[in-house]
Amino acid sequence: MTNAHLPKGWEMVIGLEVHAQLQTQSKLFGRASTAFGAPANSQVDPVSLGLPGALPVLNREALRLAAIAGFATNCQVHSQSVFERKNYFYADLPKGYQISQFHRPICTDGLLKVRVDGHDIEVGIHQIHMEEDAGKSTHTNQGSLVDLNRAGIALIEIVSEPDLRTPEQAVAYLKELRAILLYTKVSNGSLEQGSFRCDANVSVRKVGVTELGTRCEIKNLNSFRAIRDAIVAEANRQIRRLKQQEPITQQTRLWNADKGRTEAMRGKEQAHDYRYVPDPDLPVVVIDSQRLEQWKADLPELPAQRRARYMEQLSLDEHTAWFLCEEPDRARRFETMLGSEQSARRAKSIGSFLSVRLAGAINRAARQWHQIDLVLVELAEVHDQWRDGLLSNKMLTDLLHDALSVEDDIESALANARAKVGLIEQDLDALRDVIDQLIEANPKQASAYRAGKEQLFGFFMGQVMKALKGKANAKDASAALRQALQSSD
User: Fold this and answer.
1) Which of 55, 87, 274, 404 fits as disulfide partner to 365, beta carbons 3.0 to 4.6 Å?
2) pLDDT value at position 1?
3) Which of 265, 294, 323 finishes a domain?
4) Looking at the 3D structure of the chain, how many domains does it have?
5) 394 and 277 share a domain?
6) Phi-psi map region of 152: left, alpha, beta (phi>0 left; psi -120 to 50 alpha)
C-alpha cells in the first residue's frame, strides 16, 4: 500500500488503544462523583484514595455500558470476566496498582467496518477491558501537584489489532468508534474533557514484508489532528533511524505539537512488568445469559445503520450522510428540521443546508451546535424560504450571522434577524419598473450591450440587485433584464 506520508517503499503499521470514560455518575468501585470540572481533590472517597481497609464494589452500570460497547463493535461479550491488579508506581496512583483486566477481559474478538476515501476496511478489535483511571499530575518549576478527582473513574480500553496502514484510516476508525459510543450513550466522547483519548502504537516496515517492526507507543493523544500528525512524525522518525542502520528501541513517547515531533518518555513496559494478579478483593464477574441478551437487544440504531438508511430512503449523498450521522444530536437536528415531509428532495436540501450553510455560520460565529436546538423549527422555515427563492445566498448569510452573533436568547435573535433581512421582492411589475429605469439611466451601456458587448449584462444585474438591496430573485431578475435589454429601442 502506497502512503503519501512516507518515502517510497515503506509502510506504517498502526494499532490504537482508546480509553473511553463510561457515563456513570459514580466511580468504578466507589461512590465519589464523576462530574467534570470540580475543584481539585474534591471528588474522592476512601476507595479512590486507596485508604487501608477500603474495599472496592463494582459499579453495575459501568458493567452494562462495557458490555454494550462490546455488542456494538461485534465483540464476543463474555459471561465471566476477572479484575486484576496492574502494578506500577506513580504519584497519581494512590494504591500503587490499578484495577484493570488483562487475561480475562469482558469483551474480545471484535470487528469494526470503517469507510475511508470511498473504500471499506475492516479493523479487528483485540479486546475491550474495564479499568479505573489514575489521577492527574501537574508538573511545574515549583514542584508537582496531584489531583485525584479522576482516580477511580470508570473506563473501557478498546484495543485494536494492528490493521491500520495510514493516519487517515486511523482517524476514520476513531471517528466511527466515537460515534458508536455516542449513539449507545456509553461515553460522552469528549476529547476536550479527556473522556475519549488515544494511545497509538506505530511501527514501520518495507512494503511486502509481513513481519512486524519494533513499535513505539505515543501516549495521550486528545485530538484527531494530533493523532494524525503524531503518527506521521513517528513513522518518519523510525524510517530515518532504520536508513541510518540505527535500531528502534521500544518506547513510550509523547507528542510535542509545537516542535512537530515525538519525544521519549520512558522504556515501553511488557505485560509481565506490571505483574498482573487477580484482585483478591473482587470476585469473578458473572453475567447471566438472559441479561446479556437483553442488553444486546436494547442496542439503538448505530451510525452505520443510520447512514445507510439516509442514503437508501432519503437519497442523501455519502458525504452529507456521514456529516449528519457523525453525532446522534446532529442527526436528531436534521430529522427535526425535516419534519413530516420526508421527500428525498427536501431531505437533500435540508442536509445541504445543515452541512454547508448552517455549519459554516456556526463555525464563523464560534458557536456550539446545541445553541440552535431551541430554533430548529424556525431554521427549517428559513431553509424553506431560501430554497423557494425568497432569500438570496447573501440574505441567508446575513440572517444567520445576525442570529448567531448574539450570546443569549437565540429565539429573539433569530426573529430580529429575519425581520431585519426581510424577503426577496416578488412583485414582477415593480421589478420591471426598476429595470426600465436603469436602462433609461444608462443608454450608452444599453446600446453597447445590444451591439454585442455581452459582458455589460453583469453590470446591469449588479445595478438591479443594488437598487433592490439584494432582495430580488436572481432568476426572475435575470430573465426580466435580458428581455428588457433585447426589446428596448
Assistant:
1) 404
2) 47
3) 294
4) 3
5) no
6) left
